[in-house]
Amino acid sequence: MENTAKSQKRGKKIILGILAAVLALLLVLVIAVFALWHNELFSMASMKLLQERDDSHMDGAVYIMDVKGGFYLDEFVAQGGASSDAELISFITGSITRGLIPMSISESEIACSSFTAETPEGDRLFARNYDFSKTNTCIVRTQANEGRHATISTVDLQFLGMDVEKNVEGLANRITCLAAPYIPLDGINDAGVACGIYMTYQGGDAVPTDQQTDRPDITSTTLLRLILDYAGSVEEAVEIASSYDLHDSAKTSYHYMVADASGRSAILEWVGETDASDTDGTQRELVVTYNDRDSYIGETEAASDVQWITNFIIQPGYYGSDGEKKGYDRYQRIGEELARTGGVVEDEQAAMDILAIVGRRTWNNDDSNSCTVHSAVYNLTDRSVLWVPNEHYGENGAVYRFGLDQ
């Protein structure tokens, strides 16, 4: 009996020792995972559903995520950027998801509208419609870091492979969404700089820009990210764009509009000679059109200190006729509204009303895009944004305001 009791006691000690060792190992693993992933864990935990999907109205779900840390952007710049979507995906997968989650960037044909304006009080505004089809969206907020600005931007999660017919669910999808800062469509930073990206359909079949010089390389949405994080003015944004070889993402072509709180704005385009001959993206050069130097575009543009943009190259002589310009009807309509008031709008809501006029559910579409996924009016003076999903203009519970100090 005494030997049995001693054996049982020794057995309990062995079991307790094993349990203690297992718990210690688990603790070490937890500490190691937290040390490696603490920023990513906080970012994933912050992702929240703002607006539920409504399939009857072609509404995807809307999320918001606060990204903690620098999401390796400084390292991305230090390595020389990326010359293709594949290189970008490789960097994101290796740095953010630690190679655990496969990723991709989807192709798309997006048709958008944007303009700048001023309020009677002098606030500078940057307004944008993102036209596409039903998709899940995420508002991404990033922190200021040394040499970098805090930002608010909007991301289409379909570009990260999220199923448009489902909400973002499961750990793997949440991890994938950590790459969202690298695919912004528009945004603002705490210096009052805003920027947007828009398709141009160049070369008759959306031939992508693919510059080949000795400059570092950048893809379309990552250029916008660099502008948001590093530019303190329009001039600095142009300097960043001039410093890279642009390689358009998703096998399509793009141009940009950027503005700052001083009232300065510019349209950034990479062009060849004419649309008919502009089929070699390697030969394109950056052309910058500033709001105070755009008289060569047209009389309406010359008479205004604001700018507007849709989905065609604005350089004169690039097209054979106006009928070849994608989104020219929307461009004219926005120009009419801005000319009527000299580019001055009462407030952010008045700018939103202009976006509503060219919303895709009511506009006579000239392409396959069926809805306006989001509308945003960025106030560059107070660093805030009035944001509406899926053309729910003025509806209770569907109008959001975000500030960089909130």
Detailed description of the structure:
By secondary structure, this protein is α+β, with helices and mostly antiparallel strands. The protein is built from nine helices and 17 strands. The chain has a nine-stranded mixed β-sheet with strand order 1-2-5-6-7-8-11-12-13. It has a six-stranded antiparallel β-sheet with strand order 14-3-4-15-16-17, with helices on one face. Strands 9-10 form a two-stranded parallel sheet. The chain starts with a helix and ends with a strand.
Write the layout of secondary structure elements.
Layout: H1 2-46, E1 48-51, E2 62-67, H2 73-78, H3 85-95, E3 111-118, E4 124-132, E5 137-142, E6 151-156, H4 171-176, E7 184-189, E8 194-199, E9 217-219, H5 220-230, H6 234-242, E10 245-247, E11 254-259, E12 265-271, E13 285-290, H7 299-302, E14 308-309, H8 328-341, H9 348-357, E15 371-379, E16 384-389, E17 400-403
Parallel strand pairs: 2-5, 9-10
Antiparallel strand pairs: 1-2, 3-4, 3-14, 4-15, 5-6, 6-7, 7-8, 8-11, 11-12, 12-13, 15-16, 16-17
Helix pairs in contact: 5-6
